[in-house]
Write a structure and sequence with these properties.
Length: 740
Amino acid sequence: MADGGVFSPADDGLSPNSGIEITMEEISENSEELLEDEGEEDFDVGDEDNHMLKVKNTDLNVLGIKRVDLEKDGDQLLSVPSVNLEDNSKNVIFESNMLETPSNDNENATDACTLEMSAQTDHTQGKSYLPPFEGMEFESYDDAYNYYNCYSKELGFGIRVKSSWTKRNSKEKRGAVLCCNCEGFKTMKEASTRRKETRTGCLAMIRLRLVESNRWRLDEVKLEHNHLFDHQKAQNCRSHKKMEAGSKRKLEPSVDIEVQTIKLYRTPTVDAVSYGSSSERENVEVMKRMRFRNGDMEVLHNYFCQAQLVDPNFFYIIDLNDEGYMRNVFWIDSRSRAAYRYFGDVVLVDTTCLLNKHDIPLLSFSGLNHHGRSVLLGCGLLVDESIETYHWVMRAWLTCMAGHPPQTIVTNHCKELQGVIAEVFPRAHHRLYLPRVVQSILEKIEVEEPETFRLILNRTVYSSMKVEEFEVGWEEMIRHFGIRDNEWLQSLYEDRERWAPVYLKNTLLAGVFTSQPFLHGYLHHQTNFSEFFNIYESLQRKMIQREALDDSETREFTPVLRTRFNYEVLASELYSKEIFLKFQEQVVLMSSCFSIAQVHANGAIITYIVKEQDNEGEAKSFEVVYDKVGMEVHCICSCFSFRGFLCRHALSVLNYNGVEEIPSQYILTRWRKDVKRLYIPDLDSKNIDISNPVQLYDHLYRRAMQVVAEGMASKDHQTVAWQAFKESLNKVRLASQKPV
């Protein structure tokens, strides 16, 4: 079993195959590119700072985030300031480093590569596309071509298809090389013509190929050109002319999920079930807006402004309707984004405030840190519980998390949310929050003997070891209490594979069922915005202080060993204090396992029955399967899946087979105390264009902020950081004095 704390790697590309036919096509500057008709498409465009802008077409109201370099976890994507709700302008105003960027009107958005950026009343042409990089993925070949074509037009050069290859005996395209129009030189035949030589042997190119996930991945990128860019000449390139012609036709964009480009989209068909005509749907859409009391908007605006002053990598995005009114808002600070790298394997999405119609329509994302305590991973305020709204916030959150989905995502029971999770996180395990499920059953189901019902329900849910045992127990329960005809309970039972423990034995939950959502118990129905943000900030401070205290206690902790098993010694060296104490209980309880018997063998895979005596003196049997070759051990109680460490039954079988150490795959990285965790952006300089002053400034600024963040750890750190800054400044000044 793999370490549950590590994300699944991206799919590997296709290996060389004899069934692939390669066709090398040297195409002259006047040749036709191998590109099908391009329709008008919504492009989600981002500047060099990874701040995102929006372009709309006439059919689809798109709120788009283009995350070009999703591997650069922690970079600021986009921030959106508050908007005057009395203004009926359809422009969505984004703020990024004090630059206001209104989106173009629909009728002016036909050119997908052009975007006006304005600050107050000054209009300047700004860059929209970051350079391509290796590993970038697209839904189709056309998407990849269109992206590189727009990127090239923006810089001022044309592109063409240098070569492509298809599957043998098929026209299915499998790969291609797109190059700069200045690539290569004239052939001997072409050299005899009077046409002026326009090629310079430029090596700029991208190589893309179809991989197993049916996406197109860039596996080679060369950005350097050996010639000057000419925007006027580039406008006349065939690739750009074809793009402009294609933009006059409409093409609905595909929705990219868990790939490099993630679009947050809205379509007028979402509420088609609820509302008859398109005009009715449009009227309802216009009416959808968040309800604010006097002063609420000011509180929200002030908090976001203050948060960005304190934390330059604080991110927020506001969703507006066509009339300029706020529908939804999402925000996350840099610490939460960095924490997701360490604790993003299991994420709990709490919609209790929405479901219970609180004045604060909150949706929160949270996880568990290495001490087993709740950490916040983002928040949203939503206008309603519609599929459309959930789509928006889930894609916003996934984009902030660099496109990496969690391994397991746990939510409340909600049909609308269930469908959204399946679409936005198709590879994640979607489970329902078990404590809330059981609580809802006890609250909604009225019976004559509520205490007896509670005991039987808990026994059926938590004590059943096998599916048959659970289903028989459930059937007896609903028959005994006469609740078979309850439609809500029947609907919940149909989803039992998402919440009943007997069905979750292969799902990593890492203690989430024994934890509470981050803001649980602190908000009530009438909590207003001012109170909410005071509570929010207070809990954030306490969370940081609590983790620092836990880290300190873990470093100073000298465990008192209670057994002679080496498992306990090893765990004391690796686990944080809180996790070690929980695991230690399992080691101690190994003494209650009085019998281990082999009942079946299939090669190296052996099945044992472990008997233990419970607190009441009764003997219980647990089935444990052990693979001697793979060093894997699985107990029917599934303690590892539910809590993130091995149980006493599995440890007993390992000990029975002479295995004195815990197999490495069962020591999750998320619980280790020897992992250095820095809650700062993870920066990468591979794709920085040093000739671009904006990219260079942003990169240097973020690197400096990294030193600042680490320098705040202690007085000694601060002294070292300050000294390093002074030395660096002197070196930079000396470099500027050297003759060029």
